[in-house]
Amino acid sequence: MAPHGPGEASPAYGRAAPGPAAEAPGSGHVRPLVAASWQRSARARVSPDGAARVELDEDELTAYRDGHPLAAAMPVIRELMGAYATDGEHLLAVCDAAGRMLWVEGHPATLRKARGMNFVAGARWSEAAAGTNAPGTALAVDRPVQVVAAEHFRHPVRAWTCAAAPVHDPRSGRVLGAVDITGGSRLAHPHSLGFVQAVARAAESQLALLAPAPAPGGLGLSALGRDEALLSTGGRRVRLSRRHSEILVLLAHRPDGVGGEELLTLLYEDESVTPVTLRAELSRLRALLGPDLLRSRPYRLAGAVDTDFTAVDRRLASGAVAAAAGAYAGPLLPASAAPGVVRLRERLADRLRAALVDRADPGLLADWVYSAWGEDDVVVWRALCAAVPASQLPPVRARLDSLEAELSAGATALQRPGPHTRR
User: Residue ranges of the OmpR/PhoB-type domain (predicted)?
Assistant: First the structure.
């Protein structure tokens, strides 16, 4: 099978130009998933006529993917998808959490066609870098996604159809990457989406089998990039409410314990909240976790807690910047407004971004600016502009110029007198 030829695009979609209110002939408005992705792509200044950038050369790619957690799942992924991809003239692809392709395999003729749009190992296909596409958008929304023909943001990719599903670390729940099937019009079927979702779950099961057993009585807390933290304890995983997530993050950060009055100020912006409210929350949390995990006078957790945010901190302290960046799944409880959590979140993000700028590694800097939390970070875009090879500079320079123009316009608007301002 080849990619869609003339007239072979899915009948539901025409060559509508990407935009929030674009319509496709005969289909009404585009799907909300696609419209939202187009808006994110436009906001990230993705060029509709551009091409994905190859960021890792052969040596860098080999070393990186050999050490990647998904390498352990590749035998299962190949067993489930390899023959299907080759026989159907499709491609199987696996990318990391930043959207960089680690493996792209399948039918030789389809592989040759895919090189024309840089759908190759080592290229970045995150949504913020390459626009709407199944692996990149699956990572952006953290769920399985199918993108059909003209639903792609970039015109050169509209001859293709793809379906992808994210793969998660079975212990922490962190996104490790995505598995994708890419080809032509025969993939424009709901079965393709179900297929890659089943492959992703099989990969996660394989990783769970290979993972070392947790230490008896050990506690693990994952709170980066998620509004509701995930607690691992006694072989079970508990998804916490937002308030309970905040409490456990603060207590994990303070292993010696926190007094009730101080915990109140760390948790609540509203100074009128009473200790009774806090005690009620802690009582509910103790009922959820069991009396042996949460202690009082002062409030503290029984035993050490292995958290993803302290792991990033430790790696930064040891100078392992690449390892810290790889473990950073996003801001700490990003929706939280609890004062103590906000301070921890900003401190960790500031430390990491400063280390990235100081390291000046183009790949690490690109991971930051093509993420949801770093796409408007002018300081890191400037560092990337200074670090990338000349051949990769134009799109980076264009994005930086656009951001700086926005900043300048915003500053001018703030300085301009309003209609009721005295002169």
Answer: 235-301
The 10 Å Cβ neighbour count of residue 194 is 14
What is the C-alpha to C-alpha distance for residues 369 and 124, in angstroms, rounded to an integer?
12
pLDDT tens per residue, range 36-87: 999 999 988 899 998 999 998 899 999 999 999 999 999 999 999 999 999 9
Examine domains 23-210 and 219-307 and report if their fold is the same.
no
DSSP state of 174: -
Q: Tokens 């990769």 map to which residue?
A: 392
Q: Which of 120, 72, 70 is nearest to 93 (CA)?
A: 120
Q: What's the gap between Cα 202 and its chain centre?
A: 21
For strand 219-222 and strand 305-307, is the pairing parallel, antiparallel, or unpaired?
Answer: parallel
What CATH number belongs to 23-210?
A: 3.30.450.40
Q: Which residues of the chain have pLDDT under 70?
A: 1-28, 213-217, 411-423
* Cβ-based burial of 385 (10 A; exposed 0-12, middle 13-18, buried ≥19): middle
313, HSE (Cβ side, Cα atoms, 13 Å): 14
The residues pairing with 182 across neighbouring beta strands, listed in sequence order, are: 91, 162
User: What is the residue extent of each domain of the chain?
Assistant: 23-210, 219-307, 318-410
Of 94, 135, 88, the residue nearest 109 (C-alpha): 88
The CATH number of domain 219-307 is 1.10.10.10 = yes
pLDDT at 3: 47
Q: What's phi and psi for 140, nearest 5 deg? A: -65, -35
pTM equals 0.78
Tokens of 262: 């101080």
